[in-house]
Fold these 2 entries.
Entry 1:
Amino acid sequence: MNKFGFTTQESRAIDYGQFDDRLLSYVQHHEPTFLICMSCGACTATCSAGNLIDFNIRRLSLLIRRGEILQLSNEIDKCMLCGKCTLVCPRGINTRNVIMLIKKGISQIKQSENQN
Amino acid sequence: MNTQKTIVTIGAGIAGIESSVALSKLGYRVILVEKDKTIGGKINNYYHLFPNNRPAVDIKNYMDEQCRIHDLTIYKNTEINKVQKKGERFSVTTSNDDILKADALLVATGFEYFNGMQKEEYGYKIYDNVITSIDLEEKLRSGKQITTAQGKEPKRIAFVHCVGSRDEKSGNHYCSRLCCITGVKQAMELNSRFPNSLVYCFYIDLRMYSMEYESLYRSAQEKFGIQFIRGKVSEVSENKEGTLQIKAEDTLSGRPLRMEMDLVVLLVGMVPGQGTEKMKSVAALESNSHGFLESNDWQLHKNSSSQPGIFLTGACNGPMSIDETMEHARSAAFEVHTYLQNHSKHE
């Protein structure tokens, strides 16, 4: 049957109906200012790390909202915690605390997964 | 009956004049009090108006003519220092110690431009090639040649949206609504003066809330090649030659962006005017969380203030365009008229 070499691919669509909201609820519970981001990108523009390497702090909040925990755990260590993003944020989001919470949240999720 | 009733209007910008003219047409006696030496307020600062590029001086001339035709009493260089209510009547003390008696007050104290210096990271008044949209409008209006501080023709021009608006750091959470379209209008104006220039608008969201604004935005893209980049500018710094380096994120491509500019224009927002601030204490008017004077009823009585007999018109009530202000002014006149009629019935 496979003489034409056809393969099937998984859908690229985000399944918003059942995304992993564990990190999202953890972060928004401990840092409610996280919710008010308007994606203006001022944080990324001023980011010390992002100007040198492939790291986009604005996208982190998007990844949390989409439940992309695996991608986040690869990204999060690139932040140097300099805090410039917190200084420029027009919505006054405590971005540094958000980063710390992502780190904590991910390690908690990993721990509970290892226990199960 | 009507002619016996007096209204004191505070502020002779377009809102104050238009509402006073309307009240005068309804047969009331109106006294206009203006803190400046000229009438017209902010209309005096503009060159061309969006969305139809009409000269602002048209509106100014109309206002002057209306004041003349209706023979309005105007006290210039005068502020209000005290408002007292005795029974149903108001007693207003001016800065010249005159006491004006009135049956109703109309507050038309307007707005002020956000002070660009408060956003120090943009370098206004630090770097010579950073100007505000108001400075640019003044340059356009004066007819002088527009150059960089070094006397050269600007080749790359950046407009920075949301300066002092939607910004916790400036204490202003609201959107000033009109800066977006001002930016589009001015970008087109500069590009037509300097056809070889590249004009960029750095925005968070483009708020083209009228049909005509959206059309203007479209022409800016289509006919003028204005580049719209989605990302808030985080800082501006100066190079040795006096050109400017700006930093933003190009959020749609997800990468930080740097660019050299010859001229940076800050689209400054609208904040409550000096007179508006003063009215809060002088007449005990309530303001909303953004500092503008609060309507008594947002949907049904936009022109009524928190105090009976005191009415609001124009941008003291919140950022609004010229056409919106004219409507607001006429509806204020009708609101005052209704109030005064109800009161004469009770007498």
Entry 2:
Amino acid sequence: MDLAEDMYREELLDHYRRPQNHGKIGNADINYRDFNPVCGDEIEIFAKVKNDAISEIKFAGKGCAISQAAASILTEHLKGKKLAEAKKISNEEMLSMLPIKVSNLRIKCGLLALKAVQKGMLIYEGAKQTKQISRTDD
Amino acid sequence: MNRNDFPILKRKVHGKDLVYFDNAATTQKPRQVIEAIKKYYEEYNSNVHRAVHQLSAEATEAYDKAHEKAAEFINAEFEEIIFTKNTTESINIVANSFLSKLKPGDEIVLTQMEHHSNIVPWQQAAKKTGARIKYIEIDEKGELKLQQLRKTITDKTKIVAVTHVSNVLGTINPIKKICRIAHEKGATVLVDAAQSVPHMPVDVKELDCDFLAFSAHKMLGPTGIGVLYGKKDILGQMEPMMFGGDMIKEVTFETASWNELPWKFEAGTPNMAGAAGLAAAIDYLKSIGMDKIRQHDYELTKYATEKLQSMEGIEIYGPSPEKKGSVISFNLKNVHPHDVSSILDSEGIAVRGGHHCAMPLMKLLGIQGSVRASFYLYNTKEEIDLFAKALEKARKIMND
């Protein structure tokens, strides 16, 4: 297999052409849009949270095959996961979920969805904490 | 064109011969340039304009000579050539000088095809002064709507900042005409010549622009050195942006007076090795001839355009080859530019995929980005054949 074919294996391209969980969720608990300013890849994450776990998750966005396939793969992986678990996913774990070895130049594409999810979770938890604090103040 | 002069062209990328088509980003260096820099460090490295020892005299002579060569290259005077870091810094120096000249109600005129470096400095100037930015629009072929010139450039216009050749579309803009109209209204004109000076004869007197900016690294020279040309009388009255050594005539504890042109704009120890490299690059370009380079670039662009047009599902942005520089921006249907670039890279072909530092223009074209192939004097038709073959491969992998 040559380099290009190795990079764009069917398993990756299947996720790109027919992504899982593509779409939007109204009234999402977690919602964050992130993009790579250099290449313009864009991912917006929507998720519902129930009992500290991700009960529903979708993504919208535009971009290269790697960024979009990674979002498809990650959202599949996150369904039903506890937030605490989702928070712990490292960059290495994310890249190892992809069916290809991502070259250094494309790592950012592979990590965009994870970045969006984790930033969205931070905001969600921050907002929850503020609510709790204001409740104790009452 | 002697490809043997360029050591890097001999290297392999992913086991394939390198095909370098990212010349609008930066160009490769001939050994003459590399050797000039080496010679500087090995034989006469010393600080300029200061000491009386032999090395300093040689360094000063070479540094001044580089100014002379740059001046001659664009038909300017020695005093009108300021060495900067790059085109971006050159534009920032001019934008900064307008902070004291602009007031609320004044207008800055740009075009919709500017590089970020010729938008952001003016946005900042507008924010700080209350001046307003207006854009000359482009039509569907990627050319400026010239009928808008007289409407957009008005008595309120203080500065018109425009690219000579678009780094995305390749469009060559009618600078002479823009200068004429701007000058009728009393406005100053800055030309971003980063993509023109390396590729075609440029004569500042003929264009009649007030400022012109370009970078050495896009014309076979080293990184870290660029040029700001300014008309002598304007530079004479303009305040420097940077202050320090070499730019002063006399300093007391209380105040200082400025050195003569062009040194008043070159504060601190300059890029002397870079200047030696730039001088060598200019010599190299002149030995071939800018007319010949323009012709070579045009033939490659025409050949590549015809190749791409004969393929299915390729959309090319920008005007036809005779109206543009050696830049082709395009997209392969249903394939993201980064995926195209990655697959081309796996074949040893270097192109750019993305927004090319022109996000507003991309938005206007309704695309996220494009693939850009840009050619220079060492590129060949055989390389374009390899490029077309690799594109077919990209289509096959991504669309099958």
